[in-house]
Amino acid sequence: MALIEARDLNRTFSVRRRGAGRRDVVAVRDVTFDVEPGEMVGYIGPNGAGKSTTIKMLTGILVPTSGHLRVAGVEPSRDRRRLARQIGVVFGQRTSLWWDLPLRDSFDLLHRIYRTDPARHRANLAEFVELLALGDLLDTPVRQLSLGQRMRGDIAAALLHDPAILYLDEPTIGLDVVSKGRLREFLRALNATRGVTLLLTTHDLQDIEALCDRVVVIDHGTLVYDGSLPGLHEVGGSTRTLVVDLADAAPPIAVPGADTVRVEGPRQWLRFPAEASAAPVVAAVAAAYDVADLSIQEPAIEDVIRSLYGSG
Amino acid sequence: MRLYVAVARGSFRRYATYLGATVAGTFANTVFGLVLCFVYTAVWRANPEAGGYDVADALTYVWIGQGLIMVVAIWGGGSPDDLAARIRSGDVAIDFYRPVSILAWYLAADLGRAAYHLLSRGVVPFVLGALLFDLHRPSPSGAALFLLALPLAVVVSFALRLLAALSAFWLLDDTGPRSLLGFVALFFSGLTLPLVLFPDGLRHVALVLPWQSFVQLPADLFLSKRTGLDAVAGFGLAAAWAAVLLLACAAVLRRAERRVVVQGG
Fold it and tell me: ipTM above 0.90?
């Protein structure tokens, strides 16, 4: 049985407009997907696409207008308290820690809230303190932590009760490159060693590239893509670029299978489909021109997704 | 239950970290108390048996009131303010994720706060007042009843403050209901003027309202103005208010939760 089962999920909000009475706005429309235990799924879309609305329905704090939803075998909005023991939630822009208390006290309160077995709690705490380098911070009040430190604390807090699913809403927002890298490494290890299922919403596509085998793209409330990351390139019609440095400036290169899109002195840019091999293009260029240097630019996932948003 | 004890302890420690605020607040209470003492002394010199109090009773009443301002959070404040802020910011969603009772959680936090304020903002001004003035010495039973009445006063006050805070679910800003509540509490708790001094009709009304349990009831127990059955009746009234108001909180909280969960926001 899938851990998350969403079938034809709809959510409509009734919005009051000045002078125009009430109007229904569809935030999520006929969204269907399954998540199997142990998957790492990126849930992406532009602002206002319906990501947060979906997450709220998955955690039970918002009732779907229609459709079928099961998470860990329960209907979230009916059984929110039971579901709470099965899920962990991390918001990049909110904290579930207690602002004025030392980190240690927050962990202790969570232990009591979830009534985790004491031995299990101690083992989890020791492990997360070590992996997330929280040892020196345990006695610091949360308000004195840096954003990166607080986020590590929040992630530990979301995991102490051994949830089967971890929802992460913009977990790397505002973090520096090193902190982002460490966090991704931790999440990958968490998935590999504990089998925690991850559902991640983000605007940082490097998060997706580093973590997710699967991407679900939503735009205007409608699911526009559900599949692997490489598959996204095919659907999005993305391209790779061969950058050629010639010995001398030359007219635009003409070889089969690629279009020359830009010329700047001796440097030229040739575009070809992302799923095609670069070898024949490189061979054709090298055979016909005096080449000083070559490099290949991989497709930017940002561009792919932008093109999907446009067509969705 | 152990969870809520831990919540109360955490809240106690949280307030205890703001030592500067405690010292400044205690100083302000003491100054207020001194000013009120001069006013009351003048009143009771003119009318030595006003409200059935003598001068010592009246001055004791002043320091009880100053000691209880923060304990009972007469002006407002405490954990309901935290909740109102979380409603405004949307962080209240995190409270809804947790498998705990929001009402019990915030009540426990407020009781922890009250315990800290009793030991700091409550005891210190009272001791200073007792050093400066000749105050009423309570009988052992009076002192015991006084201490017993305090948790009840905090619960009644908490429930009223929580109701005001919960209005933020609908109004987004709870400033209006909160200031209105603070103003009413200031008057009907007996903090500015003992309720026993109110004219007949108003006094009868004030003495059955929930706010009488904030200052008037504890003071009358301390001063042994209410003993025996009279004291029991006072406790009964306060307990009934506590029960009714907490039930109202639970009902409003359920509605608020439904509103958020069903309508979004």
Answer: no
